[in-house]
Amino acid sequence: MSTTIHPREPPPLGELATVIQKALESNFKSTAVRVVQCPDLRSAPFHLAAPGLSGNPCIADIGGQPNLFPSPNLNAKYSLLSLAKEMEMSPIGGSLLGAGAAPFQDLGHNAELAPNIAWTSESEHEIPDFDSPHSLKIVNNTRVIEVGPAGESSCQQASSTNCALMMNLYGSSGETGPVLKVVAKGRKGEINFTDAIRFGIRDFYGESNPVSLGGVLLLKSGAANFHIMPDFPETPFRDREQLRKEWLTYHIFDAPVVCLTVMHSADPENLGLRMEHTHCFDPNGNTKGGHYHYDVPGEEEVEYEAYLHPASMLYRIDRTS
């Protein structure tokens, strides 16, 4: 894999909390952003594979949408463990979460993926190695989200740690250090939750001072719109309009939904970053999930609760554009 490395200099968490609070106030009726000691995110309702988001925080953008359009690049097959190695993470212990494409090489078809894994050393007597998965004790809470022949949605536990085509990952040691707790309720503006955060950061720090964030958010109440990719089309896409309007399937799901997110405020180095990517799963069943778009008006006001942390290193892996 071809990889370039780009250090980040994130602002202090307290300063970032103030910036995000101001950004959300213009778009939500009620907001609260503060620095807290991260709770154990393995517990309900978040169900992460690791307790927290701290320790050597990093983000990777792998592959990209050109691996799907106009025809799928069937050579774009990845392993989350190999990507962790490429991100210079320690095999002694760590975690990855984010959004991307499911491993068609395992499933036999295309689908969405919500990667959510953690690892530690399997034995005190064997040196852990990403190239030797048997040397690692892996917690794999990754979900595969797909649609059936009749358009029915399914959210299931992944059977491997593989992925494909495009991935956006937040990595850390999985420690429960200080994080940003972000709460917002009752959207009054036109911008969704994740875009409100990253646009506010961009407007404050500018295009030349990028901030990259990752973490988990919970849709606590209300409903949101999601898309789920079906299997690959039999012929190449005519254009991106066909991909968006005729191929993708769209679904509205009620809360609760757990969402794993990676976002950037800017891309001054022109790395071809996907500026925001959020994939979600059903914490209490096997139907809800997919790629988050926006919450939808309804009888119950939307409410979000998120735990986020900035990255100090960015990795661009197998760039496609």
Detailed description of the structure:
It is found in: Nucleus. Residues 19-317 form the DUF1907 domain. Pfam families: DUF1907 (PF08925). Monomer. This is DUF1907 domain-containing protein. This protein has 321 residues and is mainly beta. The protein has a single domain, classed as 60s Ribosomal Protein L30, Chain: A (2-Layer Sandwich). 14% of the residues lie in helices and 42% in strands. It has helices spanning 13-25, 80-86, 104-107, 193-205, 240-247; strands at 3-7, 28-37, 58-63, 77-79, 93-101, 112-114, 116-121, 136-140, 143-147, 153-157, 162-172, 178-187, 212-221, 223-228, 249-254, 257-264, 276-281, 289-296, 303-310, 313-317. The strands form two sheets. Strands 1, 3, 4, 5, 6, 7, 8, 9, 10, 11 and 20 form an eleven-stranded mixed sheet that branches. Strands 2-12-19-13-16-17-18-14-15 form a nine-stranded antiparallel sheet. A hairpin with a 5-residue loop joins strand 9 (143-147) and strand 10. The longest helix has 13 residues, at 13-25. 47% of the residues are buried. The model has no long low-confidence stretch (mean pLDDT 95).
